[in-house]
Amino acid sequence: MASDTQAAPAPKKKTGFVAQMLSGHSAVGLAVGALMYILCLSGTLMVFHEEFERWEQPQVPEFATVTPEAAGRAADAGLARASDVPHHFYIGVPTDGMPRLGISLDGEEGWYADADGTLGTPIHHPWAEFLEGLHYYLHLPTVLGLTVVGILGAMLVGLVISGLLAHPRIFRDAFAMRIRGNQQLAQADIHNRLSVWGAPFHLLVALTGAGIGLASVLSYFVANSYLDGDIEAFYEPVFGSDPAEDITPAPVFNITAALDNFRAEHGDLQPWYVIMHEPGTVGQSGYILARHPARLIYGENYYFGPDGTITGKLGHSDGPAGQQVVASAYTVHFGSFGGLPVKLIYGVLGLAISIVSATGVNIWLIKRREKGRAMPRLERAWAATIWGTPLALAVCFTLPTVTAVEGTLLNAIFWLVLLGLVSLSAVVTDRAAFARFLRSAAGLMIIFGVLVKWAAHFGAVNSPAAIGVNVVLLATAAVLLWQGWPVRRVQKPVPSAAE
Amino acid sequence: MPQLSPVLVLLGLALALAGVMVLRYTWGKKGARSRAEVSAGWGLIAASFVPWVMASTPDWGSALAICLFMIIGVVLMGYAAARQPEGRKARAGRAERAAAPASAVPFNWPITGRRVFTFLLAGPIAGVAALYLCLWLYGAMGGGASAGQLMAVLFAFPLLWAVLSVFATYDMPVVRRGGIVVLSGVLGALGTYFVI
User: Fold this and answer.
1) Residue A2: which pLDDT band, with cuts at 50, 70 and 90?
2) Would you call B52 an interface residue with chain A, using a CB distance cutoff of 8 Å?
3) Domain residue ranges of chain B, discontinuous segments joined by +
């Protein structure tokens, strides 16, 4: 039936709109390529942030639940260690993803506790903090870093839009995959197929990331235009606000009773954190942040009074649609809404978007080569960025175990290693061999890091997640070593920068 | 992860898989493709959302359905790559061209200037324009502060910036693309001025 079909468009030279859109897509992709790749790769790792924290301190006792009395004891012991009234005091209650009881003073100093609420090991995960600093801020000062990351998120949104518009056959070709033979075709197929199947993920992750990153700038200008400069008023409809400060001493709210009452009233919900503002003062306030099963919101705040009575909630779970959507941005961005299965899916899709970032620049480099306008230095520098990033990351997760390096110094080492490798790429002559060397080095460094970690905690591992992370790391190292093995027969007639 | 009805989960999985397979069948055909088949494929994928939503909630269920749809596509793509036969090698001419040293190109001021302008247009200028449009949107949505206003500008800001950056890098005369971006910003600024 003629009306029921449409003719397949014959392949033809890109003209007009498509060519113009493709030009814009390439320009933006090249401008942000390296940072985008680093953000995508670190974001993929950030999905497993909780697992990395458990891997870093595998000796910490883990348990699925804790009694309100034990949580209360841990809170009392934590507050007793505070030299001053903490602005915010956190009690992390065991959850599926983080089955540990932890206490934190202003998010800076903290301890894990056992199932009885006795404080033990100080909370210390320099690798997870490094990773968070890299993905949230690119290790820049807070607001500047967030804004730069937010801008990159906005550019990624633009790349998704222009990429889809620039490839009118992208859906029709969604199952075509020619990874052998011509290298440009292979890179283009990988780039386009992963882009089309991951498009909803790419768009949502980019938009939520950009929204989170650009919120500081936006709030400043909105507040100064409409809210008399009150930035808190901008966020208040979604996140609420802290009560007025009054540091006159007063008895600390009854955390044990609050958890008891919460369980009696909301047995179907999972408490995640008890958060107190200025505890032990007249101006104190407290709430239980609870996860709602089968919801995208990161949680709901349940406020409690001095005697632990639950007095109300903020409204993330049933407030205005805008509030619910904004409260879902974080979980949608990091895939923390469906346990390990969703994290694994996010891991695969995150790796896919990292490959899309890498192959996008590869395609441009190969096209230039084939037009006789090769840029060998840039190709080597790009190879150093693609394979140097995993190597630099591997160095940074190994160092805190063998040395006392952490914080700003660890951040600096990551960028120095990457800068060193990019500089080294200027003097090497064989790009393919250099890329293989970097892959092998990254694989060996990961194995070294796992062995060091294993040796440091031999016989004292309480976390199954730590074992899982080690297995995944070793598998990753095996793939890198296989890809980097110098004597393996390689059939690639026109190798790319990141073959 | 909450307990979900296995029947509904399997139904959602089956519908998504069937939808993707129908698309694979119709897009894989040579020559004409059937609109009815394409619609059926997308229809099955859309229908796969229903069991997930029934098993949980609209927001969470939809998110899982999207994740599942994407992962099915990626797996099928991997399968297609794995069973692909060895392809043709690149033409010798290409390889020779690839090996050819890059010819020295003299520095071109107009081209460099246009590139710098494009960068500024897609970056800071498009950003300021998007910001003004968002300020206008925030004010136009009513006085005070509300969750709806926050949500709207939080996502509109990067989205508008992205769209304007696409225009800024679009391959058309500099004056036209510059005009689109700058005029958007002027429109936003005027709108904000009158709303305030």
Assistant:
1) very low
2) no
3) 6-82, 115-195
For chain A, say whether B14 makes contact (Cβ under 8 Å): no
A374 → closest Cβ in B69, B102, B153: B102
Contact A129, A408 (CB under 8 A): no
Concatenate the DSSP letters of all residues of A365-390 into one string.
Answer: HHHHHHTT---HHHHHHHHHHHHHHH
**Amino acid symbol at A254:** N
Nearest by CB: B145 against A96, A234, A371:
A234
- Domain residue limits, chain A: 64-123+241-313
Tens-place pLDDT, residues B43-54: 999 999 999 999
CA atoms A214, A215, A220, A223: torsion sign: positive
Q: Which residues contact A188 (CB under 8 A, 6 or more apart)?
A: A359, A363
pLDDT tens-place string over residues A126-136? 999 999 999 99
DSSP line for A3-46: GGEEPPPPP----HHHHHHHHHHHHHHHHHHHHHHHHHHHHHHH
Please name the helix (run of DSSP H) or strand (run of DSSP E) that holds residue A448, with its range, or none. helix A431-456
Q: Are A89 and A97 in contact (CB under 8 A)?
A: no
Given an 8 Å threshold on Cβ–Cβ distance, is A180 in contact with B86? Answer: yes
Yes or no: say if B132 and B124 are a contact pair by the CB < 8 Å rule.
Answer: no
C-beta separation of A464 from A349 below 8 A: no
CA-closest candidate to residue A61, choices A109, A120, A125: A120
**Alpha carbon distance A77, A118 (integer Å):** 8
pLDDT of residue A371: 86
At A325, the amino acid letter reads V
Q: Which two tokens stand for residue A295?
A: 């919801």
Of B24, B31, B131, the CB nearest to A8: B31
pLDDT at A465 over 70: yes
Q: What percent of chain B has pLDDT over 90?
A: 51
Contact state of A337 with B63 under an 8 Å Cβ cutoff: yes
| Other CB atoms within 10 Å distance of the CB of residue A438 | 26
Q: Which amino acid is residue B186, in one-letter code? A: V
Average confidence (pLDDT) over A402-422: 95
The two most distant CA atoms of chain B are separated, in Å, by 68
Query: Is the predicted pLDDT of residue A172 greater than 80, yes or no?
Result: no
Q: Is the pLDDT of residue A498 over 60?
A: no
